[in-house]
Design brief:
2 copies of one chain form a homodimer.
Chain A (H helix, E strand, L loop, with lengths): L3 E3 L2 E3 L12 H8 L2 H12 L4 E2 L9 H13 L3 E6 L2 E6 L1 H7 L3 H5 L1 H4 L16
Antiparallel strand pairs in A: 1-2, 3-5, 4-5
Helix pairs in contact in A: 2-3
């Protein structure tokens, strides 16, 4: 776990890049991966920040951690801790300012019904 | 050279896919390549369709042909012949309808001045 010092506060996640310094190339390399697009889509659809563990992904935990890392480095998400939960927030406004229209363009998958629903629905109670 | 028959006319380019049947995944895999993005940017900036040979690309002719093929298969460009010149047209309206906002999002590179200028400028006359 990386510990950095910022503004006199202890912070358990690495610093986040300035979105304005990120290239379109890096962003496209991030979102060309369907698992990473699913993370973005779920954060985009959610009304709140989501803990890593609450986003259902078809990959191992370590692979998921890698995908979150790539999205953070590409300026798409901000990560922070609440207790032991690593939370994820879409950097919607900053990203929209740097790459206008791109987040909206990614929504076509959800609108076409190809992506997963935005939040896991509780299943029926066990019989 | 592929020759297909369509509407009773001989056509020297393969049929073009319906953009509405193309996945966002395929489109992103097409535009994640910077050479292919340059082709799209030059067609987007040009006021007319462009022959393959008029778009200056830092790759061999056969590699360029491959890139045009990928863009055609991803629904981004339409190709046709005028004499012996293979012309390229951005499928702007169809693509915008299927993937709203995506072409606009790609323009950030040109607006930031990272991409090449839309058309080659004539150099100074030789001394």
């Amino acid at each position: 776990m990386v510990t950095t010092q910022r503004n006199g506060q202890r912070d358990r996640v690495p610093p986040h890049p300035d979105v304005r310094g990120i290239s379109l190339q890096q962003v496209l390399e991030a979102v060309v991966d369907p698992v990473r697009r699913r993370i973005v889509a779920e954060l985009d659809a959610a009304a709140e920040d989501l803990a890593c563990g609450t986003i259902d992904l078809p990959v191992s935990k370590s692979t998921a951690t890698h995908h979150f890392h790539v999205l953070r480095e590409a300026g798409l998400i901000r990560q922070y801790y609440v207790g032991t939960s690593r939370m994820n927030a879409l950097r919607r406004e900053e990203f929209e300012e740097a790459f206008p229209g791109l987040l909206g363009a990614l929504r076509v998958e959800r609108e076409r019904g190809r992506a997963r629903p935005p939040a896991a629905q509780p299943g029926p109670p066990p019989a």
